[in-house]
Amino acid sequence: MATMKDVARMAGVSTSTVSHVINNNRFVSEAIRDKVTAAIDSLNYAPSALARSLKLNQTRTIGMLLTASSNPFYSEVVRGVERSCYERGYSLILCNTDGDAERMNRSMETLLQKRVDGLLLMCTENHRPSQVALSRYPSLPIVMMDWAPFGAANDVIQDNALLGGEMATEYLIRRGYQRIACITGPLDKTTALERLNGYRQAMHRAGLSVLPGYEVCGDFEFEGGLSSMDKLLALPQRPHAVFASNDAMAVGVYQALYKKGLRVPEDVAVIGYDDIQLAQYMTPPLTTIHQPKDSLGELAIDTLLHRLQEPGADPQVLVLTPELVVRESVGSLNGN
């Protein structure tokens, strides 16, 4: 494999001149530039990214650590992150943890040893990277996505989950539904708890009771929605409407209703959360709360890059505003 010294020798110049030509960071005459370029082509020389990163103290790579999931929401967020990295001249190294603490810490160490310029974390509060591992890299910029940080030293981007839960439930109430159930996400996750609190607040303000068994704890996965809906259907009074705290569980809700011969929304209205791409192709198309996933990825990268440029800036907590997307999975019991 050719080296910079080989290029310099063939072109009859110093290695520093070769470096100036490659990095275009200092004036070099056209005649010398042509000689260096010809030598590079002849030797098929490729600059060492490792050497450059050591010299510049940056690798132009971003690490991302997230809990593996079948939930399409995460893949759509990752797609937005990767696109934003590419547009800004960075590469993304992605590690899935599969909910395993040991795997998470090993993945964290791998990312840190690869000298990533910054780190995005998207994990549940009960499956966090080791604070010990992070403490060995105190200057590494970190952006937490979707959950609270270890302390005040990190930037956080999160969904206004309380507002989103209220919006979903209030829409069902406006459409005339009163027996409304909620399938939550795992309650060790702040967003799941806040969506549940939003549901409770909307029900309380409307003077509606949450009937026994109408709050079922799910897992943000397809299967969790199916099993949770089965529990609701087994109650003496089945709900007329269900707020599934994410769209993946709403897919499971549809499957449970289909198996019982029930129709959406004629027998049970369903509203989801996230507005994954699949939601608009369900039968009927799913009414849901939209999270701006592309904006989430873009904002995470821009926040990380801002932290790289301004390491002393105060930590930020950035909150994304949810929006109601009305489709066909919610009918009307009030004649509207």
Automatic annotation (TrEMBL):
InterPro entries (UniProt xref): HTH_LacI (IPR000843), LacI/GalR-like_sensor (IPR046335), Lambda_DNA-bd_dom_sf (IPR010982), Peripla_BP_I (IPR028082), PurR_sensor_dom (IPR057343)
Chain ranges of the HTH lacI-type domain: 2-56
Keyword Transmembrane helix tagged: no
GO molecular function: DNA-binding transcription factor activity; transcription cis-regulatory region binding
NCBIfam families documented for this protein: PRK10423.1
PANTHER family linked: LACI-RELATED TRANSCRIPTIONAL REPRESSOR, RIBOSE OPERON REPRESSOR
Protein name: Ribose operon repressor
